[in-house]
């Protein structure tokens, strides 16, 4: 009886809902009658998802390479999902801010700890062969990776370190974008010629990246922090979470990623060219890139030594022990 009353009340509410939008409830109830039950595989589009791993060679390990890139892109999407909510949020709620950062950091933690799948999980001999079929594609062309940076901080903080002090937020987005650090990384310094990897990326994504940079101008995650009151800015949980994000995104992920470049591309007699054509040993180290999303929260010393310990460890393992 109680159940019947509940159903009657639900039908009344439905009638009201559909009447309000000029719809006929009875027709929708027919639809409900004929609708198939939802399954797990339809809900998450499993068949589509599992059909997206399409190797270009017959080397079995290439599938690991594809899948791990795809997994990473999905995590990048989760990170952007949280970043967008932060940028859209107009409250000054420090707990909300810290909670979103905590989620982002938890995604980075997974990415950093799982990178062994790349470093140890493939045969070098296979890698060096199937990568030749992937030229000139490179993870360098990950647009989500670049979007994460643009949502995190002002474009002036992403200018190449060699000329960062010549630019400020007063410069136009277009000008700052032209001097963004990764463009230099994929340009032949002697001829000024851009690599094909970079040219293709620019052609495909420049309008979109510029649009996002304009949309979040003075409204990035860093600006959200800068706009807090004096006391809120001192919140230790918040500062710790911001520092963790900076180190995760700009040192620790880079560290693990560069570990894979070392494993596959380093040779006793000269290094193997990167697929994207960069001089990767000079481009990838975090202490050379010096990308810092939230400079205000560090001391001068911390900024000067950004990621340095790691480079010492990688290039001069003996020296870094002392
Ligand atoms: C065996 C594994 C890997 C190797 C050897 C490798 C190697 C490289 C190299 C040499 C570069 C410099 C650009 C170039 O010349 O191509 C690069 C850039 C990059 N790769 Fe990878 N990579 C690996 C895995 C990954 C994975 C799994 C991702 C995930 C999406 C990724 C994302 C990136 C990104 C975002 C950059 C640009 C980094 C920056 O601008 O600081 N890579 N990679």
Could you give the distance between the termini? 79 Å
The helix/strand series, from N terminus to C terminus, equals: HHHHHHHHHHHHHHHHHHHH
Q: What structural class do you assign from the helix and strand content?
A: mainly alpha
Rg estimate, integer Å: 25 Å
Bound molecules: protoporphyrin IX containing FE
Task: Give the topology, please.
Blueprint: H1 2-20, H2 25-34, H3 40-43, H4 46-49, H5 61-88, H6 94-114, H7 116-119, H8 124-130, H9 143-152, H10 173-178, H11 181-185, H12 196-215, H13 221-226, H14 230-233, H15 236-265, H16 280-283, H17 286-289, H18 300-304, H19 308-315, H20 317-321
This protein binds protoporphyrin IX containing FE.
Residues 68-69, 72, 118, 138-140, 142, 145, 182, 185, 257, 260-261, 264-265, 274-278, 280, 283-284 line the site of protoporphyrin IX containing FE.
Explain what you see:
The chain is an all-alpha fold. It is built from 20 helices and no strands. Helix 5 runs antiparallel to helix 6. The longest helix has 30 residues. The protein is globular, with a radius of gyration of 25 Å. The protein starts with a helix and ends with a helix. The mean pLDDT is 93. The site of protoporphyrin IX containing FE has 24 residues, from helix 5, helix 11, helix 15 and helix 16. This is Tryptophan 2,3-dioxygenase family protein. Pfam families: Trp_dioxygenase.
């Amino acid at each position: 009886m109680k159940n019947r009353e509940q159903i009657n009340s639900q039908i009344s509410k439905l009638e009201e809902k559909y009447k309000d939008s000029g719809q006929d409830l009875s027709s929708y109830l027919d639809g409900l009658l004929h609708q198939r039950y939802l399954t797990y595989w339809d809900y998450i589009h499993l068949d589509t998802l599992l059909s997206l791993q399409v190797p270009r060679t017959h080397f079995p390990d290439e599938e690991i390479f594809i899948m791990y890139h795809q997994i990473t892109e999905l995590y990048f999407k989760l990170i952007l999902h949280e970043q967008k909510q932060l940028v859209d949020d107009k409250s000054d709620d420090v707990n909300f801010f810290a909670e979103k950062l905590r989620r982002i950091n938890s995604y980075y933690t997974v990415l950093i700890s799982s990178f062994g799948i790349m470093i140890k999980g493939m045969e070098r001999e296979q890698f060096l062969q199937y990568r030749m079929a992937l030229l000139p594609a490179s993870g360098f062309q990950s647009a989500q990776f670049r979007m994460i940076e643009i949502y995190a901080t002002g474009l002036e903080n992403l200018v190449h370190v060699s000329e960062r002090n010549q630019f400020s937020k007063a410069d136009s987005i277009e000008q700052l974008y032209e001097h963004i650090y990764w463009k230099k990384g994929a340009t032949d310094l002697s001829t000024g010629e851009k690599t094909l990897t970079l040219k293709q990326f620019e052609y495909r994504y420049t309008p979109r990246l510029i649009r996002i940079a304009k949309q979040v101008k003075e409204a990035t995650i860093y600006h959200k922090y800068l706009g807090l009151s004096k006391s809120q800015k001192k919140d230790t949980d918040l500062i710790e979470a911001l520092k963790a994000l900076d180190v995760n995104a700009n040192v620790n992920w880079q560290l693990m990623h560069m570990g894979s470049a070392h494993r596959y591309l380093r040779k006793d007699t000269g290094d193997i060219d990167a697929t994207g054509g960069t001089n990767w040993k000079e481009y990838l180290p975090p202490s050379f890139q010096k990308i810092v999303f939230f400079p205000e929260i560090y001391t001068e010393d911390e900024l000067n030594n950004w990621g340095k310990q790691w480079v010492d460890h990688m290039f001069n393992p003996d020296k870094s022990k002392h």
